[in-house]
Amino acid sequence: MSFAKKIAHKAEATKGGAKKTTGRATGSRRLRAEGRGDQTKGNLKQAVAKIKDAFKH
């Protein structure tokens, strides 16, 4: 997996965490749920990339 994609996946997870925290601070359930979804999606993409790299070498 390219370095740029790894950074993009990490950024997505980080963005999701920030959204989740903002939603928690403002009391917005929608924003908190959206943040959890983005964070989970980013973490899942990172895990898949690690598995692909493990089988590549």
Structurally, how many domains make up the residues? Answer: 1
Major β-sheet annotation: none
The shape, in one word, is elongated
Q: Specify Rg, calculated over alpha carbons.
A: 13 Å
Number of helices: 2
How far apart are the first and last residues' alpha carbons, in Å?
A: 12 Å
Q: SSE order in H/E notation?
A: HH
Percentage of residues in strands: under 5%
Specify the helix fraction band: over 70%
Uncertain segments are none
Mean pLDDT: 93
Number of strands: 0
Structural class: mainly alpha
Write a structural description:
This protein has 57 residues and is an all-alpha fold. The chain has one domain. It contains two helices and no strands. The protein has helices at residues 3-26, 29-56. The longest helix has 28 residues, at 29-56. The protein starts with a helix and ends with a helix. The model has no long low-confidence stretch (mean pLDDT 93).
Topology:
Elements: H1 3-26, H2 29-56
Helix pairs in contact: 1-2
Features:
0% strand; 57 residues; 91% helix; mainly alpha; elongated
Give a quick rundown of the structure.
The chain is 91% helix and 0% strand. It is mostly helical and 57 residues long.
